[in-house]
Amino acid sequence: IEYEDLGKNNSVKTIALNLKKSDRYYHGPTPIQSLQYATSQDIINSFQSIKQEMEAYTPKLTQ
């Protein structure tokens, strides 16, 4: 028995990843400047909307 993946090792020289200023990558993408500020009522409305969506969610376990 002969397996192709265990055959010759045609290694490709890899290059190490060197991140400059790696602290930029710790928190993921962030906007440069926020153009619109959320009010307390906006946050409450969003929370209530998400809560309603979660309460109405029914998983489809058979696909």
What does this structure look like?
Helix content is 27%, strand content 0%. It is an all-alpha fold and 63 residues long. It has one domain. The longest helix has 17 residues. The chain is flat. The chain starts with 39 loop residues before the first helix and ends in a 7-residue tail after the last helix. The model has no long low-confidence stretch (mean pLDDT 76). It comes from Macaca mulatta (Rhesus macaque). This is GTF2H1.
The structural domain count equals 1
Largest sheet: none
Helical residue percent?
25-40%
Label the structural class.
mainly alpha
How far apart lie the N and C ends? Answer: 39 Å
Counting DSSP E segments of at least 2 residues, the number of strands comes to 0
Low-confidence stretches: none
Total of DSSP H or I helical runs spanning 4+ residues: 1
Please state the CA-atom Rg, rounded to the nearest Å: 25 Å
Spatial shape: flat
Beta-strand percentage range = under 5%
Along the chain, the helix and strand elements come as H
Integer average pLDDT? 76
Organism: Macaca mulatta (Rhesus macaque)
Protein name: GTF2H1
Topology:
Layout: H1 40-56
Structure in a nutshell:
This protein is mainly α and 63 residues long. 27% of the residues lie in helices and 0% in strands.
What are the key terms here?
63 residues, mainly alpha, 1 helix, flat, GTF2H1
